[in-house]
Design goal:
With 335 residues, this protein is an alpha+beta fold. Helix content is 39%, strand content 17%. It has eight helices and twelve strands. The protein has helices at residues 2-16, 30-62, 80-107, 223-234, 243-254, 257-260, 294-307, 321-332; strands at residues 121-126, 129-134, 143-146, 148-152, 157-163, 168-171, 179-181, 187-191, 197-203, 215-221, 284-285, 290-291. The strands form three sheets. A five-stranded mixed β-sheet has the order 3-2-1-5-8, with no helix packed on it. A five-stranded mixed β-sheet has the order 4-10-9-6-7. A two-stranded antiparallel sheet has the order 11-12. Helix 2 runs antiparallel to helix 3 (80-107), helix 5 crosses helix 8 and helix 7 (294-307) packs across helix 8. The protein is elongated and about 100 Å long. It starts with a helix and ends with a helix. The chain binds dinuclear copper ion (CUA). Residues 125, 128, 168, 203, 205-207, 211, 214 line the site of dinuclear copper ion.
């Protein structure tokens, strides 16, 4: 009884790791499904091998054995077929099969070979956030956002991956495998979500102190909703509608904020940090490390270095309480 309980607990702990928002074995798109199918095949084969090995080990341990004098001499060559078959032929066949299956899966994915049209989106990795440029249509329809990628559900989207500094890796487990963002080497990844939903992702290549806090969100929307979202993002930021927001905007432009960020429709055009034009429409801040709300915005402005040490966002401490409140009110109006 106690053993069963223990086994159940162990099983529960293992299964708790599955089914989460970043479960690669729970695919939500064609590419992830191919990878997941391959993973199940490999898992099946290796589980079978493990079971057979345990049975053989058990058999060796339990079989009747005699004394040393009853054994055949060592040099008689017994058991060499076991070594040849079990140690060479079977592993060769299994590993070669898995290798070929893996290559076939990989080769089915499009790469950046110059034969594809312009990508729909360009994602540039920064320490430690994601710049997202939409390249759809004419140049005046292009816009930049950050850390949250909206895509239409049910159709493929080509994303060009680049890096502004070190190597990062784009990984949204429910939609695709990992693909690196390499400085000077644009890569292409094609993602598609079967259904509308929110798919979380993570930088999957160690890129410095805050690598673990470099998260991204893919929001798949029905076509009409997606078009509406695009139309909203193309435009400039909302202008202040009350005194508090107006003061906030004034502070944004006068204080260090404008040296690093862009808010389209104002004089802030810097590109060191994320574009904040439609900040309030995004779910998270600090590369989705924190939910986008009043308390976190105030904490991020004043204590970024405590929340995300070594990031390029400084602690902005020269604000009075009223100024901070106005600044946050303004940021929250940018939808
Ligand atoms: Cu970017 Cu790890």
């Amino acid at each position: 009884m106690r053993l069963q309980l223990l086994l159940l607990t162990v099983l529960a702990v293992f299964l708790a790791g599955c089914g989460g928002p970043q479960n690669m074995l729970g695919p939500a798109g064609p590419a992830a499904r191919d990878i997941s199918t391959l993973s199940w095949i490999v898992l099946g084969i290796f589980s079978a091998v493990a079971v057979i090995m345990w049975v053989l080990l058990g058999w060796t341990a339990l079989r009747r054995r005699g004394s040393l004098s009853e054994h055949e001499p060592v040099d008689i060559g017994g058991g060499q077929n076991w070594i040849l078959t079990g140690g060479f032929v079977i592993p060769f066949v299994i590993l070669a099969t898995v290798f070929v299956l893996g290559l076939r899966t990989m080769m089915a994915f499009p790469v950046n070979d110059g034969k594809h049209d312009r990508p729909d989106i360009r994602v540039t990795g920064h320490q430690w956030w994601w710049e997202v440029q939409y390249l759809d249509g004419a140049v005046d329809r292009h816009f930049t956002t950050a850390n949250e990628i909206h895509i239409p559900a049910g159709r493929p989207v080509d994303i060009e991956l680049e890096s502004a500094d070190v190597i990062h890796s784009f990984w949204v487990p429910k939609l695709h495998g990992k693909e690196d963002l390499v400085p000077g080497q644009p890569n292409l990844i094609r993602i598609e979500a079967d259904r509308p939903g929110i798919y979380s992702g993570q930088c999957a290549e160690f890129c410095g102190a805050q690598h673990a806090h470099m998260m991204l969100v893919v929001v798949a929307q029905p076509e009409t909703e997606y078009q509406a979202w695009m139309a909203g993002q193309v435009g400039s930021s909302a202008q202040p509608v009350n005194g508090e927001q107006a003061l906030g905007q004034q502070i944004f432009l006068a204080k260090p904020c404008a040296l690093c960020h862009t808010i389209r429709g104002t004089e802030a055009h810097a590109t060191v940090g994320p574009d904040l034009t439609h900040l309030a429409s995004r779910q998270g801040i600090a590369a989705n490390m924190l939910p986008n709300n009043e308390a976190n915005l105030a904490a991020w402005v004043t204590h970024a270095q405590a929340l995300k040490p070594a990031s390029r966002m400084p602690n902005v401490t020269q604000l009075s309480g009223l100024q901070l409140q106005s600044l946050v009110a303004y940021l929250q109006s940018l939808n």
